[in-house]
Write the structure tokens for this entry.
Amino acid sequence: MHQIRTGELVDLSVQQVVDCSARPNMRGAFKCVLKNGGIATASTYPYVGNRGECDTRRAARIAASIDGYSVVMWSDESALMRKVANGPVACGISCTPEFDAYAGGVLKASAPNTLDHAVLVVGYGTDRDEGDYWIIKNSWGTGWGENGYARIQRGVPFVGGPFGLAQLIMFPYLRRPSSETVCSTSTGSSKKRKRDTKFKE
């Protein structure tokens, strides 16, 4: 969203939301950024991999900000694709042993279980040999996956998407949007499913 607003791509601090969030989950992360008035860069507040004391001095060096965030629950891959087309979105995910050990390539999807981790979905694509995939950014540093990113199989028959990626979607906005209805397009139906829930300061 910062890049859309300014044209500048910056790597934002994961460690800041780990240290400074009241609750260690996606909603807590967005609330942390809103309460602080923004978020620092990863170079200003570098990742260490453990929750520590909030460094308010570093957190005050704001590099990007948001006006609020929206939540979509129990969506599908078609709706997720529409959201990602407008910018990165945060998603819950089932952190399976296969996901944990991922080292490259297109990770074959498994049926969703408990959502116990969060990632950033930044895009999607197609590999000639391995098929359609999502591009996700993890928070475990550049030593994991493909320089900190992963490609996960897209277009799977599981409710909630691969590893539950479409079960819980959260994304920031830069100004309060109009009410939006998320519709299922996987079956061609326009039946209303669930409205976005929007939050702001």
In short: The longest helix spans residues 26-36.
